[in-house]
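S1.2 Input.
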Amino acid sequence: MKVKHDASGVKPTSLSWFFTGSWMLSVAPTVFLASILAGTVAGGLWWPAPYEPADLASASGSADTLAIAGNNLTLALSLFVLSAATAGLGAIVALFINGLIVGQLAVLLIDNSLGSMLLVGLLPHVFIEALGLCLVSSAGLLGPLIAVRLITQSVGPSATKAILIRSVALTTVGFTLIIVAAVVEGHISTVTW
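S1.3 Output.
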């Protein structure tokens, strides 16, 4: 039996917004960003950092932009795969942990009168990097979305193409933001202890 779809390629249902993937551009990045922010608050308020400022002294001001970009792109690719494999839940946990570390670091620096290092060393790049990680995590939801589409036969070829385009766009913008954050981290927001 052939399933009928409307002009946009979507079988008319109350879940059309889900099957077209339009939520990937707004809801998913917001959930992932909220996870990072919740981790940052939790790290700042409830879990003290397990290290002292002296432990951070090895992070001197000469940062290698390529190494930073490589590390962050590896993290982004891992989040993409984790998001695809767990329908986003694994990426939410991983981003929460990332935020937890950021919150711990922020409180550690402020408590030790090193707030200027927070302003110079972390804030110039952390928002760009976090947004890039959230966008790539959102793009990773393409796999589960396509699986649901295949099982329910709720989306036609034109909507599948739209989902793929959204995913590629999210991944491209996310990776670009991560590279920009690495350049900022390597050349602008470096801290010499």
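S1.4 Remarks. The chain has a mean pLDDT of 77.
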